[in-house]
Amino acid sequence: MNFRDIEYFAVLAEHGHVGRAAEALGLSQPALSVSLRRLEQSMNAKLCKRTPKGIELTDVGQVLLSQVRRLRQTREDVMREIADLSEGRAGNLRIGAHAGLIDSLLGPACCTLLKSAPNVTLSVSVESSDAALAAIREGRLDLGLNVMQSPPHPDIVQEHLLDDTIVVFAAAGHRLAKRRQVTLDDLEDERWTATAFSAPALPLLSLALQDRGRKPLRYVVQTSSLTFRDQLVANTELLGTSSKRLLKQIKARHRVVELPIRGFNVKRSVGVFYRKDAYLSPAARQFISILKTTAKIIAKEQ
Q1: Which residues of the chain have pLDDT under 50?
Q2: CA-CA 20 to 30 A from 280: which of 3, 38, 194, 230?
């Protein structure tokens, strides 16, 4: 088996077209076809089939592509580890975080890391839980900071950091804002704003209403921006959900209140994620330790 043929196959699979793959590799189409036939002969299996639009992988081809991607990740991990050891390089840490954790947890932890390891560089993105997990599995992120999954993905390690309580909040002038207690029935005709980070609170709340024979939640605005959500809730009759911890920060910027909803008790756990077989640089291990220390401080302040 020729490793160059395997790499050519991966490029072909990713492009889905012999001509485009050959152009990307700087090969002629006949040369790429010869490479594919040689690989198929060495494996004694058909790896792809031609279609009017290009090529499609067979089941065997799909398995091979999956393993090739794993090999690529392993190769990249090895190169990063060797560079860290041979050059004393701190490297770049790629982090994907839940939007609600940027200010309270990620920000302070990054400040601490950069003070203690000034040569480290950071690439930080805001990611939903599903997007972060996919990026970690594919080697595009080193660490994820998000709501923990149950059950956890078999290829992902989750380390617990802290627990959150989810609450419903409204503008200070909302009709429900002055009540000592709000029932689920009171929420039936309310309008809501939701974000990509609202799970699991809103789906659970909607199910609770339907179980009581009520209408499900009515989402008027869906957004990926927590700042935009907060502005909408503070200046309209829309309701939203937030962690109790984050709501303290929202109250510092807007006139909003927590609604005391009877029978609504949703908690979630926040953790740091990384690929089970991934190389963790010294900077990544140090950052995980800093996250745990920062999370303990936050938990004491709640």
Answers
A1: 88
A2: 3
pTM, full prediction: 0.68
pLDDT the model gives residue 86: 54
Q: DSSP letter string over the chain?
A: --HHHHHHHHHHHHHT-HHHHHHHHT--HHHHHHHHHHHHHHHTS--EEEETTEEEE-HHHHHHHHHHHHHHHHHHHHHHHHHHHHH----EEEEEE-GGGIIIIIHHHHHHHHHH-TT-EEEEEE--HHHHHHHHHTTS-SEEEEEPPSSPPTTEEEEEEEEEEEEEEEETTSTTTT-S-B-TGGGTT-EEEEETT-TTHHHHHHHHHHHTTPPPPEEEEEES-HHHHHHHHHHSS-BEEEEHHHHHHHHHHS-EEEE-BTT--EEEEEEEEEETTPPPPHHHHHHHHHHHHHHHHHHHH-
- Please report the domains of the chain, with CATH numbers, ordered by start residue: 3-72 (1.10.10.10), 84-162+269-301 (3.40.190.10), 164-268 (3.40.190.290)
Mind listing the pLDDT tens digit for each residue in 26-58? 999 999 999 999 988 988 889 988 888 888 999
Question: What's the pLDDT score for residue 43?
Answer: 86
